[in-house]
């Protein structure tokens, strides 16, 4: 086969894939649109004047809602048991409607307690209690649609299973402002430059397919061009403004919007003074180097005391890019893998800072919020053995697991324990009943016997002494109580294949990685009986190839704007980072596909990158 024939075959395959993806996206958008309830306002003369008792209407500037629509929205909320309703304008422009439908599944997001809140960015009806608990009584009114995008994300957290969406024919909104597109993407938690680059790459692919594989290329181009009309054509409810014009000019408008978004300057830091103070604090800490963050190297295994461990991985901080080098060593006898030299408590504070809270809090919350299926699987594991009444989740972070587990065990009391302030925020949101802040071994004495279930999900590997954590669990559990543990599996083949880019090495945060046999022996020695063991079911879907691609791209050009960056923050360095991230998009897509295959194999073979154990503390 000649080079031209090979190129043509690749183009046909690419065009066929584009047709498949666009077709699936069109069908999905139609299904989601059909799932949006449409408000049916009563005659205006019968409607009460706003504000409605017990409700607050929050709108973007220039948005008006008639009284009948407001009453219909409140009636809908009461009927459906909602505490927050995002009102979607029936006359919303076509591209904004399609963008919303790409992010929002009204049915799945209503029942998924951890799903992020997405909305149209125009009007929200909020119950008194949620408005008060979210602290909106003292907040200024929104000044732009972007504020509504941020607000609905927050409100979904305070009403995780009581947030809904409805098409509102009586909602009048101003035209979309293309100049605000980048700002609105950021408000949704999306990267403007990366998405715009991907959009331009998709348009370029369609042009290439038209030239190299005209038949398939024409089909893909036509499907893309006509998608607004195919999705938003004659259906009940929406009447997008300028649908015909939006359909006819879609490729040109899409290219113009992407180019305008790429040309939009990066958002200014919301708190310049705080950013400067943060940078100065990191500079002071790094002035003396990073050696003081490490303890002396130990010569033996912390699990079995066998001398002479071997180096398994040497790496840098591929997650945040903070200075320092880290080594994981492996015991030649028991296979335990541990950080050596180990970080001091001061070092742990330095490397954890701005990851789960602060600068990195939003990104971490986004990742944790996409694991609802995993959370439900963990909670369901107890069903054949017990009905939990009082559950303590150790290392709960922001309590995403507890929030999701309430859907499985609605009558269970869930408490959370963690070092960070997130436990108190989780209690305010209602995701946990009580938040305990501190070290588990230090709090165990005052929690003795108070729980019939304790969980540690991807927690033990972060601790300085895993055996002391297990001893604390023995104290806290009542006789006959259950201990649920999930950990990365250091025996996973992916760890050897991907080397230092295997995400579960997670340096410098992971201190210990325990083979499953070691952990089972430690549990048995503490009077636990093993009830269930899962490997494939505990596999983390995007923890191998996609994780490796993200770490590799991040390590090539670390963020020069990070307050701990040791290189000058210049336009050239920022441009280089943006270029690498954009060029990595095809790699991310390929890695995502590989991970999907890897997940299917892991689930079928019961061998993944993590494992899960359920054990019972025996009586007496």
UniProtKB/TrEMBL annotation:
SUPFAM superfamilies linked to this entry: S-adenosyl-L-methionine-dependent methyltransferases
Pfam families, A to Z: Methyltransf_23
Name of the protein: Methyltransferase type 12
Organism: Streptomyces angustmyceticus
